[in-house]
Amino acid sequence: AVLQQRQEKTTGSHFGAAVACAGPTMTLLEPSAPALLVWDVAGDEPIEISRFGHFGPKSGELVRPEGIALDRDAGRAYVTDPGQGRLSVYGVARPSEPGLRYMPELVRFVKSLDFRALWESERPAKTTEPAAKPMEPTGWPIEPGAVAVAKSGDLFLIDAANSRVVVLDRKLALLRSFGGGRSADARLFRP
What is the pLDDT of residue 3? Predict the structure, then answer.
C-alpha cells in the first residue's frame, strides 16, 4: 500500500512539512525525499549542514514524516511518521566552530518507538473463555502527529487516531495522556 507508492524525486527545492528550531539550529522535514534536513541559521543566510533519511519501512527510514521537535540543546531530533506508526529519534552532532559546511555525518539514527508493534503486544490473546472483567481500552495504536519537547525533556505527541495528547518521557516511556475521553467534554476535536 503506502510502501508500494513510488517515491518522488528530490527537486532541489525544500517543501518542508514541519520545522523546529533550537538556538542556531533549524531542522526541516522534507516529505518528498523523505528526509530530515539540518540548517545553521546563525548567520544572515541559512546554510544546509546535513541531511539524513530515505524512504523505507525499516527503523530510521521514513514513509510519511509529519512532525519534528528538537530538544533544548538541539542534540536530538524527534520525528513522527504516521505512515509507519513510529516516533524516531535522531542524534544531531552540530559542531560549535565557525565556518560550518555540509557534513552528512552530523545526523545519525538513535532509536525508534513503533506504536503498532506495541499495540500488537498489548492486545489480549484470543480465547474462548469469557473474560472475568472487560478490558479497558488502551487507545492503541497511537497515530503520531505533531510533537513538542517540554523544558523537562518530556515529549508531547498528538495522537490523531484517538483524539488525544500522549506524554512520553525522554526514554520514550508512556507517562500519561489527556483528551480522547468517551464524553464530548473530555475529547479533543481534531488535535
Answer: 35
